[in-house]
Amino acid sequence: MKGNFLKSWNESVNELQALLQSAVDHPDVGEGDLLNSYDISMEMRSQDLSVSDVSNTLPDGTDLPVKEIYIHGYDDWEATLSPFTATEHVPNQISEGKKAVHLSLSQVDGDFIYLNAAEWKPLYDEMNTVFTDVRNGISTWVTNVYGQVQSGSIEISDLVTPRVQRRRRCSARRGQRSLAQTLPRRTSSPRVREA
């Protein structure tokens, strides 16, 4: 789940890069014509945008590179966007009403907010919290059950599900029936009678 979330972010960044490259390749449009970054309700034209990969370890232990966007704007303001970070304000802007930096793509119908890290980060944080809570809960349960089995306060058979218990009983009954069916045959065999 976490991996899919981060792959979605990466794909969105790839789409953004492809769109911006199309603008750069077009003779009448440039990256700056499409891309805005916003902070404190004022438009800030991006001077430069670059993407790098940061390492992230998934719950299963595999590493997944996650794309991080670095924005360098006019007047030397800068911000970093990723699912892990949501820059709340541009460092040289100190005023009330701070809001998260996000990318906005200019369109004919107005601006379209894209890759708002302030929306991605809370989802990422919530996923981390849920994974941690579940992992801790399972670990606590296993530790408690192991301790109870070791102390003898519960039997291992108490841990088996009813379905498995039924299967074991049926298997045991079948084994008893087959044993019971073979014993009379053996006693009535000619060799047994002769002895």
Give me some keywords for this one.
single chain, 195 residues, elongated, six-stranded antiparallel β-sheet, 5 helices, 6 strands, 2 domains, alpha+beta
Structure in words:
The protein has 195 residues and is α+β, with helices and mostly antiparallel strands. It folds into 2 domains: 2-127, no CATH class; 155-188. 48% of the residues lie in helices and 24% in strands. The protein contains 5 helices and 6 strands; from the N terminus they run ααββββββααα. A 6-stranded antiparallel β-sheet has the order 4-3-2-1-5-6. A hairpin with a 4-residue loop joins strand 3 (63-73) and strand 4. The protein is elongated, with a radius of gyration of 32 Å. The model is unreliable at 38-43 and 88-100 (pLDDT under 50).
Can you summarize this structure?
By secondary structure, the protein is an alpha+beta fold. The protein has 5 helices and 6 strands; from the N terminus they run ααββββββααα. 48% of the residues lie in helices and 24% in strands.
User: In total, how many domains does the architecture comprise?
Assistant: 2
Radius of gyration: 32 Å
- Going across the biggest sheet, name each strand in turn: 4-3-2-1-5-6
Instruction: Tell me roughly what share of residues is in helical segments.
Output: 40-55%
* Beta strands, count: 6
- As residue ranges, the low-confidence spans are 38-43, 88-100
Beta fraction: 15-25%
Overall morphology: elongated
- Strand/helix succession: HHEEEEEEHHH
> Average pLDDT value?
72
**N-to-C span:** 71 Å
State the helix count: 5
The biggest beta sheet, please? Answer: 6 strands, antiparallel
Derived from helix and strand composition plus strand pairing, the structural class reads: alpha+beta
